[in-house]
Amino acid sequence: MDSQWYDRAEAIRQTIVQLRDSLDCATKHSRIVEIDGEMASPDFWDNQEKAQERVAERKGLIGIVKPLDEALKSSDDLAAMIEMAEEDESFAAEVPPEVERIETLLEDLKLKALLNGRYDAAGAILTINARDGGTDANDWAEMLLRMYLMWAEKNDYTVELIDRHDNEEAGINHASVAIRGPMAYGYLRGETGMHRLVRISPFNSEGKRQTSFAAVDVSPEISDAVEIEIDPNDIREDTFRASGAGGQHVNKTSSAIRLTHFPTGIVVQCQSERSQHKNRATAWKMLRARMARMEEEKREAAEAAKYQQQAKTGFGSQIRNYFLHPDQRVKDARTKYGQGNFHAVMDGDIQGFLDAVLRWRAGQPVEEDDD
């Protein structure tokens, strides 16, 4: 057996061990055992919210350690296969494809290792607002909402509608959803910014080309255990009648809540529940999430300044262009990654963009994929 296979197998094993150490898998394994102990308690589900947090935390931890454990086992099996190939040539043909398979798996694990931010393992609170472009922008905002919901469904994530305000003619004025699953915030955080669509307007009788904008904002869904300093005196609370779906009861009572944080100008609102109390609790959760993300941005900017780098955040800027005219394609303005199938992207095929942003943030090269 050629010595190159021994070298590649050893390099694979060393990389896996380094990844396990850098991700502190030993601590994660201990935490899984600890959560399993909590879940075995007969009163575990008495506090539904806390129980669901623990289940989500365990799922996120498993999503990290299980692939690494399996990769390490595969590398051990590979070493054994190479040794057997020395004695039996029939095994030699199996070595190259197995090495390639594990190396491909390793690239995916390296990408997951980039999800090491403070809140990357948390759920994501995603808000979409229609911007310039009239009714086309409202329609575009709803298209984006569907895109993210389709992505969540493809990845077996759960989604909770927090707030939605429909436009009278078409589409939505704004909507907020909570997307929960392993590394939901880590993957989606790079979606914050302006999304631009160019197409022939379906709302223009003259068939003119229209450019529409929608703003996406993503914040981490943090637990109550995380301390976020918010002075209640800095908050104005407004109640109003909910609009849209929900029946007559929703429109008869002022159950919707809007919170305005004066120092930062952050405004959040929730009208998904009939209970004003529940809407207030959700609105406060959204405010805490936005404040947590602001703190994260400050830390990133400070780190970038420390190393004399430009912070690769893209917050508040135009981040991606979607074209239906004159040709169909989607191109990220930051990473230059692109896809040629517009409709596949709108059906939730956005993982390539999310992965590209992770690599871009880490200063790694990004390959274009204009298929």
In short:
The chain contains 10 helices and 11 strands. It has 371 residues and is α+β, with helices and mostly antiparallel strands. The longest helix has 40 residues, at 48-87.
Structure description:
The chain has helices at 3-22, 25-39, 48-87, 95-113, 134-154, 184-188, 248-252, 276-306, 342-346, 351-361, and strands spanning 123-130, 158-166, 172-180, 193-200, 209-221, 235-240, 256-261, 266-270, 318-323, 329-332, 338-339. It is α+β, with helices and mostly antiparallel strands. Helix 1 packs antiparallel against helix 3 and helix 1 (3-22) runs parallel beside helix 4 (95-113). Mean pLDDT is 84; it is low at 245-251 and 307-316.
List keywords for this structure.
8-stranded mixed beta sheet, 20% strand, globular, single chain, 10 helices, 46% helix, 371 residues, 3-stranded antiparallel beta sheet, alpha+beta
